[in-house]
Amino acid sequence: MESTRTIQLKIADPDFDLVETIKKYAQGMNYVSEIVFDNEKVIPARKLQPLVYNHLREELGLKSQVSCNIPRQVAGTYKTIVELAKQGLSYWQKIVYSPTSMILSYKRDYTITENSVSITTFSSGRKTYQLVNYPYAMQFFKSPWKFGASKVVKHDDGSYYFHLTVYQEIPDKRTEDASTFMGIDVGMNYLAVASTTDKKCKFFAGGEIKNQRNIYKNMRARLQSKGTSSAKSVMKQLAGKEKRLMKDVNHCISKAIVKFAAENNVSVIGFEDLTGIRTRTEHNISKKHRYHHSSWAFRQLQSFVAYKAKLAGIITEYVDPAFTSQTCFRCNHISRNNRHSLKFHCEICGYEVNADLNAASNLEHRTRDFRYTLESQGCQSITHTHEMI
């Protein structure tokens, strides 16, 4: 099983050569993108590369490895568009790439130390740039972590960062061998609620973060009404602050969740599969709460828990979330009338409990059932995680 992380390290001294290389990379991406778009269907990377390689190398002057990376990246983007289109979430369209990032292969395009990164530039060959590192990131420069394909990225504030991807192999664990499970319900009333097989539970509150985001929301509304260039600039800064705030909170909550799981000898954490959650549930959300529902980083929290859990030797699984908030954990009766805001009261058996805790208990039970399904079918579930810090 492979665990992958991405660490953002600021490039202290970006120069003309680095910026020009990213521009050339974007130029190559757009050339390949136009070819795929004009073809009116996805061209697999193995077929796309021979079509564009000579132009990328001879006409644009890109290096050989970059000329291989570009068609793979473009083909992957269009493949994603087609998959989303099947779900009614996108449509066939030309993708235009801005000069804000480029993918580099380890050793061929870059090498790195704790304090600097050497990058192959378009016009000046290999050049070394200083990195602004920080203590927590130092651990990823040591065994068992290894370096993988990484990115140079221009952030919204104009700074350039090296997004270093590292990975390590972790011994596989099987859901079929698990004995203790934990369901996690994520939401807006509580950031997360956990319930274990042993009926232990914990609430991870989100009241303060919700209040802070309400402040940002009101500030954004006032700035939007002004419509000036300075107001737009402040709105951009607010968006960055809010994003960083949510990321920091999700890191703290995910750490606490994994700690609680480890303390209770949990083998598998069960999450609800959030694929398409915004589309599925937006008609049930009042206009007053639509902002929080559409922008809340549910999936990010899940991914943070997943990679932290993996490092702790705990498996994560994703199960069907259908009716978990309406199903009575005690008698399995399903009804919209069972849930009343933060309270769950079964209209059949009278079971009464916090609504989010009831949902977490149902998720734990479904994860446990999933384990028995795997065992009976003789299948093994392997979860891969990827996270950016």
From TrEMBL:
It comes from the Archaea. The keyword DNA-binding applies. Keywords: DNA recombination, DNA-binding, Transposition. Residues 171-277 form the Probable transposase IS891/IS1136/IS1341 domain. GO terms for biological process: DNA recombination; transposition. The keyword Nucleotide-binding does not apply. InterPro entries: Cas12f1-like_TNB (IPR010095), RNA-guided_DNA_endo/Transpos (IPR051399), Transposase (IPR001959). Pfam families: Cas12f1-like_TNB (PF07282), OrfB_IS605 (PF01385). Residues 298-363 form the Cas12f1-like TNB domain. One of its GO terms (molecular function) is DNA binding. PANTHER family: TRANSPOSASE, TRANSPOSASE, PROBABLY IS605-TNPB FAMILY. In the C-terminal section; belongs to the transposase 35 family. This is Transposase, IS605 OrfB family, central region. It comes from Methanomethylovorans hollandica (strain DSM 15978 / NBRC 107637 / DMS1).
